[in-house]
From TrEMBL:
Residue stretches making up the FAD-binding FR-type domain: 4-111
Family designation: Belongs to the ferredoxin--NADP reductase type 1 family.
Annotated protein name in UniProt: ferredoxin--NADP(+) reductase
Residues in coiled coil: none
Keywords: Nucleotide-binding
E.C. designation(s): 1.18.1.2
GO molecular function: ferredoxin-NADP+ reductase activity; nucleotide binding
Species this protein is from: Bordetella genomosp. 13
Listed InterPro entries: FAD-bd_FR_type (IPR017927), Flavoprot_Pyr_Nucl_cyt_Rdtase (IPR001709), FNR_bac (IPR033892), FNR_nucleotide-bd (IPR039261), FNR_type-1 (IPR051930), OxRdtase_FAD/NAD-bd (IPR001433), Riboflavin_synthase-like_b-brl (IPR017938)
Reactions this protein catalyses: 2 reduced [2Fe-2S]-[ferredoxin] + NADP(+) + H(+) = 2 oxidized [2Fe-2S]-[ferredoxin] + NADPH
């Protein structure tokens, strides 16, 4: 069932990262659906999964993991146990329907940064999604000399898509992509056990990356939980970073679809 606002797509693959907690869905893609890397989709389900042909009435925003050139869409999700949407989405299997709004949304895209030498991608949890789509775009490798991908999680089990990230590191120029997995509830080899914002505040993130986190060279993307976003925005603002406004390019960009 479709109308002018959404299309009915079909689940083709399910990946479980942490049973009962983290999963990814791959679905078919309408040929007319075009988006920029870093944007998000509104995806919908009927209120009653036992009536799969009913119109979708519950909608949520999910960044695309997949790149714009791929013939499918992929979404990465956490299960919110008491949530209205994610537990139902987690039940979907290949052949089931997922509805996708025809219009992509969001501004966490490379065109926010017309200049800059270093790109810092800071994410917590499933906020990683948008960066995976961006890293799948050849443009990011051509534009930035160095890319630092920071993924904050609770435990190592939550570090999804590590194989894909490692493949980009192998195919990029030596040292062009630096991956910093940061866990708060266990120690990872060679990494501090801390929140991303703590590492920004005390300078540890710069030392880990071996790069200055300074608006003269760095462009920063933020995607994750609201507390991290609020704290990181404040810290970056104190260091001279500013969002774009009224056609003036910025030095950091934020996506918050909670």
């Amino acid at each position: 069932m479709t109308d002018s606002k959404y299309t009915r797509q079909t689940v083709t693959e399910v990946r479980t990262w942490v049973p009962g907690k983290l999963f990814s869905l791959r679905v078919t893609r309408d040929p007319a659906y075009a988006f920029q890397p870093g944007q998000f989709a509104r995806v919908g389900l009927p209120a009653d999964l036992d009536a799969p042909d009913a119109e979708p009435t519950v909608w949520r925003a999910y960044s695309m993991v997949s790149g714009p050139h791929q013939p499918w869409l992929e979404f990465y999700s956490i299960v919110v146990p008491e949530g209205e949407f994610s537990p139902r989405m987690a039940q979907l299997q290949p052949g089931d329907a997922l509805y996708v709004d025809r219009t992509p949304f969001g501004f966490l895209t490379l065109d926010r940064f017309p200049t800059g030498d270093h790109l810092w991608m800071l994410a917590t949890g499933t906020g990683l999604s948008a960066y995976l789509s961006i890293l799948d775009d050849p443009a990011v490798w051509q534009r930035f000399e160095r890319i630092v991908l920071v993924h904050g999680v609770r435990t190592a089990a939550e570090l999804a898509y590590r194989d894909e990230i490692a493949a980009w590191q192998r195919s990029a120029a030596p040292g062009q992509l630096q991956y910093l997995p940061i866990a708060t509830r266990e120690a990872l080899p060679g990494m501090p056990q801390a929140r991303i914002t703590t590492l920004i505040a005390d300078g540890s993130l710069e030392r880990l990356a071996g790069l200055p986190l300074h608006p003269a060279q760095a462009r920063v993307m933020l995607c994750g939980n609201p507390e991290m976003l609020a704290d990181a925005r404040k810290l970056l603002g104190e260091q001279g970073f500013a969002p774009g406004r009224r056609g003036i390019p910025g030095t950091f960009a934020v996506e918050n679809y909670w």
